[in-house]
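tool=predict chain=A
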Amino acid sequence: MADLTGRRVLVTGADGFIGSHLVERLLHEGARVRALCVYNSNGSYGWLDDLPDHLADRVEIRLGDIRDVRSVREAMDDVEVVFHLAALIAIPYSYQAPASFVDTNIVGTLNVLEAARDMGGVRVVNTSTSEVYGTPESVPIRETHPLQGQSPYAASKIAADQLSVAYACSFHVDVVILRPFNTFGPRQSARAVIPTILGQLLANQSSVSLGSLYPRRDFTYVTDTVDGFVRMATADLPAGSMVQLGTGRSVSIGELFAVCCAVTGSGAEVVTDDARIRPEAGEVHVLLSDPARAKEILGWEPRVELDEGLLRTAKWLHERVDPRRASRYQR
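tool=predict ok
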């Protein structure tokens, strides 16, 4: 894997779940990191506020908005690699406010691509999602599988991916697409299924409210996803290439709940919450990757098993509540 030491990189969405982990990894790699965080009236840098001082001192943090052309161009000035992670990702919210997903996920990506086109010499790693496949025609899913937008969120990400391919073909922008399956780990939004389950179990609730238990997902621990980003940035790939990241194993939400109970030592039961169930036509019933291309092209393989990742996530969540009790999750 090529070295990022000393290279100037930008991470959009650096204040978020995956973005903050990526910033940490890049700093450990010796990269010169600029972080674009969404502007807010509190002046918060999101999860980057939690960086230890010895890392925080090495990050150039800028507040801005991916939808704003000037913010994007100024953030991209004089960088060699752009990791574009800034996006709206909440699928349920996309049914309520689809226009905001168009503005952020499509127009925001267009702003990055236009800046890269004008500047030249910039590699852009655009972040996709396994949701672009919809309920697949066959599994495991390969990179050649047709795309199907079953939610406004998925449709916006398909559009961003296709813009990336178009800019590679039409304007020779060095943009590549990384398509992670379901990433989980510390700092993930409490609205996501794993923090939803673990949060309720750690609160010692006797019952846990969930939506449908039947959809199956391919879960990848966040440090493995971040490793894929780093490898993608330096891989010898033609512009417009796409690689997906997944473990090649899927579990149902019901099975996931059972593993979470085992990790936390809980005997809780599930209560179905209709408010958490997607519209039937928008539900993606199974996501299961074929990780062969990632291994062949990037030399990437997942290293953290599901139960170990859940244990780490539970420990982190518990530390947020009471650091004295974190030892409960030490093996």
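The radius of gyration is 19 Å. Residues 33 and 59 are 5 Å apart (CA to CA).
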